[in-house]
Amino acid sequence: MNKRIPYIDSLRGLAVLFMVQQHLIAWLWDKKWISYSITFPEHPVMLSLNFAGNFAAPIFILLAGTGAALLEEKRTRKTEYFRRGLFILLCGYALNILSPHWFRPGSWYVLHTIGFSIIIAPLLLRFKNSYLLPLAVLIIIIPGFIRTWLQTPLTTGNSFMNDLSRGGGILRLALAEGHFPIFPWIAFFIAGIICCRWIKAGRRGHILYSAALLFISGTILKGLYNYGYFFATGGKFFRLFVFTPYIYPASPSLVFILTGIAMAFFYLFTFIKKNSLPVRVTASTGRLSLTWFFIHIVLFNEIFRLAGIHRNLPAAGTLLIITATFVSILFFSSRWGSWGYRFSIEQLMRRTVKLQ
């Protein structure tokens, strides 16, 4: 059986909490808002929590890359990468069916990108960091040109991201205009591979330096756009600079910032000891991240909606449910762990893919 790395499970558990609270705010809170700048002064707590939810997907994808690099150390066969990636990809399509109020059968969400990334991981793992680093940066920048060519709106909604009628169909969603398209989100997977290699090589500080550089780069691009330079606000290259605090779609400036933050989280969690409080609190949740992913979406976005509880709760009521959900997830994850995570999606994946 593979030896677990506590800080990875713990960080993944934190990402679960980031994800859940953001989704519950979107699905339960009765406030209709379209702008952080307008609504933040009135609801600073709710919008701060909502923005913090943007850290979830970057951490999930980065840790998937870390996991792929760890499997390489165990000389995992390429077919096992394929089976593991295919399993997660199929989970993504299963979720499309189970959550019809959010997705369509052809939607492309974060599970799809993670699954695809794991499938092609053997190819990515063949490259040294000196090649992966510029590749990741290029992948972050490319969507600016792709969206200019496709004339993608600066902000998109579910209807747009689920629309298969545009030229290119599902391929268009997967590559550029879905919820979490391959460009730019696979860059986080590559970052996870690089981080894992640096840890193994005893170069943990490189993670922090790179995180700072990426964050600063994104902030500079954002600053040039906000200052109003012509080349940053108009013309063929303005999408490289434009900044919107929304991940649908994620602009290059925002992706640089989010990559830096995700890597900073990873760096900080590498200092966590095996039996420390963060591990005891969130590691079990991290080992059930895929299961909780399904449970919370089906429960709150489908069953609660059918029960008439959808975007009709005040901020206080929403925060109360979020708190109760956190307590429930952490408690049941701990108990589930004592039962060996039986009947979880993770256990099903281990049996199907035969990775222990």
Q: Give the beta-strand count.
A: 0
The Cα radius of gyration reads: 20 Å
One letter per element, helices H and strands E, the order comes to: HHHHHHHHHHHHHHHHHH
Counting DSSP H or I runs of 4 or more residues, the number of helices is 18
How can the largest sheet be summarized?
none
- From the spread of the alpha carbons, the general shape counts as globular
Q: Strand pairing plus helix content: what structural class?
A: mainly alpha
Mean pLDDT: 94
In short:
By secondary structure, the protein is mostly helical. The chain is 70% helix and 0% strand.
Give an account of the 3D structure.
- The chain has 356 residues and is mostly helical.
- The chain contains 18 helices and no strands.
- Helix 1 crosses helix 15, helix 6 packs across helix 11 and helix 15 packs across helix 17.
- The mean pLDDT is 94.
Layout of helices and strands, plus pairs?
Blueprint: H1 6-28, H2 36-39, H3 44-52, H4 56-73, H5 78-98, H6 110-119, H7 121-124, H8 129-150, H9 158-161, H10 169-177, H11 182-200, H12 204-227, H13 230-233, H14 252-269, H15 277-286, H16 289-306, H17 315-338, H18 345-353
What labels would you give this structure?
single chain; 356 residues; mainly alpha; 18 helices
